[in-house]
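Task 17 of the worksheet. Students: predict the tertiary structure of the chain below and write it out as structure tokens. Keep your answer in the requested format; marks are given for formatting as well as content.
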Amino acid sequence: MALSILATYSGDFLNNGGVIVGARTQPRYSTNDVPYNAITKLQDHKYQGAMVEGVHGWWLPYSYEEMDYRIDLLGNSEATALRVAGQFANANGALVITLNAVVEFYSPLQIFGHSPGPFSSDEYLELLHTMDRLPAFTCNPNHREIFGQLWDKAVGFTRSGVKYLVEHPEVAAKIAAMFLAA
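Model answer:
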């Protein structure tokens, strides 16, 4: 499962268009405060800056349970969520929101392709921890640089996964059997 949000400013640039904040919040996060004020008070996984810079954020589960396909990423308070709020400098400002989601699902029909998920290993857990150390939100101009760092780590993870399969041919045989049976 994957989820990202991109908020791009559209309007005049007077006073930087206003201010924007984005954060990845933990499960069961709630507040009675104004959304902008509440999010700016968070300490982790937050970006706050000028509206003209926009904001980009991406989802990462806080637990294995959240990787369950039945979790509602877009509205369940029991799941990690992506939140964006702002204050425009004037009434002419607007945000263009792009939400990208990749979902996993189960189907009793065999019309969909089958791709097994990643195996749980030390390398997989290391990759999750590496991702958790990257900023969850940043201004739009910087988000490609951050994902470049993640890409370098993912390439290393893929190499170690291939090495694992070479060192453990019984696992490779099971995976091959799954593909042949599908």
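Marker's comment: The beta strands are 2-10, 18-25, 46-50, 55-58, 81-88, 94-102, 137-138. The chain has one domain: 2-181.
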